[in-house]
Structures are given as structure tokens and as C-alpha cells.
Design goal:
Strand content: 5-15%
Helix content: 25-40%
CATH class of the largest domain: Alpha Beta
Largest sheet: 7 strands, mixed
CATH superfamily of the largest domain: Type I PLP-dependent aspartate aminotransferase-like (Major domain)
CATH architecture of the largest domain: 3-Layer(aba) Sandwich
Length: 466
């Protein structure tokens, strides 16, 4: 039996076994086509079961920051597993967890020096929200519980993190907390009212935030949670000054500011964290995951202001404990992976590379606006999104029963590129080691994929483009 036959048989076997897996966001009432089986990866590329090389446009899922196949991280995980694979975080500190916390404190903004470990982004957000409740209970303000968030936000899949998420299609079939969670307008400049300037749009958003706090009462409003860039909502970059002004309002009314940096942390925007370096804010809490290990193994964390910790401490007879944690909090193998990941980023000057090639990616992305189907191109650093519309004039989203983003992704896969399709949008967030030449390759394929999709839609009579 030849190699090709073996590969085909392996792929068929994986697909057969995959029928037992319930995938994230699974739909049980439709038959989906066979998924591409990915067998290996190296650098910014992955390889499917047929041996085809595919540029990893989404960087896994916003997370493979240093690229695939880095021996330094793999070896660090193996060495740590051989030395100590696990011990309970309830009672026994480990060297990797302690060293990583010290390192995170050194690179985090302001006084965010305390590190609470979780298993990923969802549990980080969940834990941050629970800490806010704990914080106000200990301070003698048990009614200060209301959480403000935004439409188009995505914060996770646990009950609390999903409740503060604001993507409409994610809300269709599940139940969520609604009594004390409030969604403000999406800060998407592309969707602002006709004739409104971006400055006026920012004023409107800030006024809305302050109005909601006053409506609920500052004594009842606990926190605002905000991604610096709304990632899964479509790489929405809020208007200039938005975050700084929102933080100012929160400070005025004693409302905590949680910056969800699960996507933007660890180099995506060319810095360890985006909050201070890119958007000029020092929040009270930062949540992280994904890039902390570059996706090599799950790990998340909540970075908490020293000020908040001091406010809930100092009275040993009170008996107040933050009764929240996970079996795998601060897992030694995951922390070893994170330490090696940070070493790789520093050694190979990946933050500097992201700052150098990020503007180039944005420039080349903007050139795709000439395509009739592309209504908006947006992004920052190594995050980008194009939004497909029925017409540039109407800005009506081009949404199909068979999502247009999936069609574009299918064409791009045939040409050697993976995308992240989101209904009528296509997202790219490649590893931060990507070069200019690889950006040219990625966006050259994306252009052809869109052009072929336009031809398909016109031929099928679904849409007509000028």
C-alpha cells in the first residue's frame, strides 16, 4: 500500500471516529461536510491529511502566537511532566507557577501583581466576575452586583462568561443570566448612525455607559468588562479615546474595569498587553489565556490589582476566603509551557516583529476594499477582519443560509490558506512570527477566494455585484 493510500485511509478513519465527538457550536439538525483533518504544523503553516500546506490564518484560534512546532516549549513541557506532572494547587505551590506569576507581575501594567490561575479564557472571565462579587461582599456592599458589557462582545462559554457575551447568534438556544447583566451598544464605528462622526459616536457610547450606571445606581453597579478589541465579534476596534474615557467614568462611580485580554495579550498587538501600551489604560483586572502558552496547552489567568487585594485583606478574624478554583489551576506543565513561550517571544523578538509587520498587514488588508463584496476592512496589529455586504451603499450584511464566510474559507483552503469565517466576515490573526512575504501570500489567496465566491454567488443568482 502506498503512502497516498495510507494517508487517505488515516483521514477516513479519523473522520469516522470524529463522529463520536460533539464539537463546539455543533448543529445537530444539519449534515455538515467532512472537516479537513490537520496532521502537523510548523511555523505559520499546518499540513492536512493529504499533505497540503495551509497558512494558519487564524493562528489556531487567536492563540498560536509563536507558531507551530517550537521545540523549546515542547521540551519544557516534557521535562516538567517527567519531574512533576501534577500536585494540588490548594495546598502545594510549585516552582513553575510561582516563577510564572512573578514574571507576569513584572510585565503587567500598573499594580496588577496578583495572579489567579485558571484553565483558559472562559474560566478566567468567570473567575474575574466572581472576584468582583467577592470584593464587594467583603467591602460591605452586597448589592453592588450589576455587570456592564457590550453587544458583539465574546467572553467565553461558562455560564457567567457566556452571559456577559453579546454575540446575537450565540444567544439563540441557551439560557443566560439576565437580571444583573446589561449589554451596552457595540462600539463598532462601521455601524454608527448615518452622518454621525466617529467623535460623536464615541461621545454617544461614553454617555450611554454613564447613563446606565446612573440608571442602575453606582451603589449597584460593580464592573464593566471590555475586550480592547472585540475579537470574535468581528475584530471591532472602538473609536479613538473610547477605553480611556470609559475607564474615567468607571473611576468616577467606583465601578471596576475588567480588560479581557484573552486575545490581545502576549503579542497580538505588538506588546505583552494592549491595555496600557496601545489604549492608554491601567484596568483593575486583566483576564488572559490563549497566547500565554501559544495554545500548546490550556492555561488562563486573572491579573488583579494589588489595591483590590489589600482592600479584601488585613482582617484575619473575618474569615473571608475567595472560594473559587480549579483542579488544574496553575498546572505545573502548563506553567512550564508558558515560561518557555515567554522566553521564545523574547529571544526571537516577536513583539518587535508584530509591531513591524502589523501595520503592513493592515495596509494590505485595506487594499481588499476595492472588491465589490467587501464593505468594511478593519483591524489593528496582527488582527484583521473584512465584512461582506450586499452593497457598499446599504451596508446590509451579506448573510446566507450557507454562510458566505464559509464559502470564502473553502476556496481559500483549496489555495493554501485557513481563515476564521464568522457568518459574513472573514478573520485573520496569524502567528506573530509571520513575515511580510507570508502576509502577501495570505492576502493574495484571500483576494482570489473572495473573487471566486463572488462568481459563485452571481452564477447561483444569490447576489449581483457591480
Amino acid at each position: 500500500m502506498n503512502k497516498t493510500t495510507n494517508t487517505v485511509d488515516l483521514a477516513a478513519g479519523i473522520r469516522r471516529m470524529d463522529e463520536y465527538v460533539v464539537h463546539p457550536w455543533a448543529s445537530f439538525d444539519t449534515e455538515s461536510g467532512p472537516n479537513t483533518v490537520i496532521n502537523s504544523g510548523g511555523g505559520v503553516y499546518v499540513y492536512d491529511s493529504d499533505g497540503n500546506r495551509l497558512l494558519d490564518g487564524p493562528g489556531g484560534m487567536w492563540c498560536v502566537n509563536v507558531g507551530h512546532g517550537r521545540r523549546e516549549i515542547i521540551d519544557a513541557m516534557a521535562e516538567q511532566a517527567a519531574r512533576l506532572s501534577y500536585i494540588s494547587p490548594w495546598s502545594h505551590p510549585t516552582e513553575p507557577a510561582a516563577r510564572l506569576a512573578e514574571r507576569l507581575a513584572a510585565i503587567s501594567p500598573g499594580d496588577l501583581n496578583r495572579v489567579f490561575y485558571t484553565t483558559g479564557g472562559s474560566t478566567a472571565v468567570d473567575s474575574a466576575l466572581r472576584f468582583v462579587m467577592f470584593y464587594n461582599n467583603v467591602r460591605g456592599q452586597p448589592d453592588k452586583k450589576h455587570i456592564l458589557t457590550r453587544h458583539d462582545a465574546y467572553h467565553g462559554s461558562t455560564y457567567l462568561s457566556a452571559s456577559v457575551s453579546g454575540k446575537p447568534r450565540d444567544k439563540n438556544w441557551l439560557d443566560f443570566e439576565t437580571g444583573w447583566i446589561h449589554h451596552l451598544s457595540s462600539p463598532n464605528p462601521y455601524r454608527r448612525a448615518e452622518g454621525m462622526s466617529e467623535e460623536d459616536f464615541c461621545d454617544h457610547l461614553v454617555d450611554e455607559l454613564e447613563g446606565k450606571i446612573l440608571e442602575l445606581g453606582p451603589e449597584h453597579t460593580a464592573a464593566l468588562i471590555a475586550e480592547p478589541i472585540l475579537a470574535s465579534g468581528g475584530v471591532i476596534v472602538p473609536p479613538t479615546g473610547y477605553h480611556a474615557r470609559c475607564l474615567e467614568v468607571c473611576r468616577q462611580y467606583d465601578v471596576l474595569y475588567i480588560s479581557d485580554e484573552v486575545v490581545t495579550g502576549f503579542g497580538r498587538l505588538g506588546h505583552w498587553f494592549a491595555s496600557e501600551e496601545v489604549f492608554g489604560i491601567v484596568p483593575d483586572i486583566i483576564t488572559v489565556a490563549k497566547g500565554i502558552t501559544s495554545g500548546y496547552v490550556p492555561l488562563g489567568a486573572v491579573l488583579i490589582s494589588e489595591r483590590l487585594i489589600k482592600e479584601v485583606g488585613g482582617e484575619p478574624d473575618r474569615g473571608a476566603s475567595f472560594a473559587n478554583g480549579f483542579t488544574y489551576s496553575g498546572h505545573p506543565v502548563a506553567c512550564a509551557a508558558a515560561l518557555a513561550n515567554l522566553d521564545v517571544i523574547e529571544k526571537d523578538q516577536m513583539l518587535e516583529n508584530a509591531r513591524e509587520v502589523g501595520p503592513y498587514l493592515q495596509q494590505k488588508l485595506r487594499e481588499l476594499i476595492d472588491l465589490p463584496m467587501v464593505g468594511d476592512v478593519r483591524g489593528l496589529g496582527l488582527m484583521g477582519c473584512l465584512e461582506c455586504v450586499v452593497s457598499k451603499e446599504s451596508r446590509q450584511p451579506l448573510e446566507l443560509d450557507y454562510d458566505v464566510g464559509k464559502r470564502i474559507d473553502s476556496h481559500c483552503q483549496a489555495l493554501g490558506l485557513l481563515l476564521r469565517p464568522l457568518i459574513n466576515m472573514c478573520v485573520v490573526s496569524p502567528p506573530i512570527v509571520i513575515s511580510r512575504e507570508q502576509i502577501d501570500q495570505m492576502l493574495g489567496i484571500l483576494r482570489v477566494g473572495i473573487e471566486r465566491t463572488m462568481v459563485d454567488l452571481e452564477r447561483e443568482g444569490i447576489a449581483q455585484f457591480n
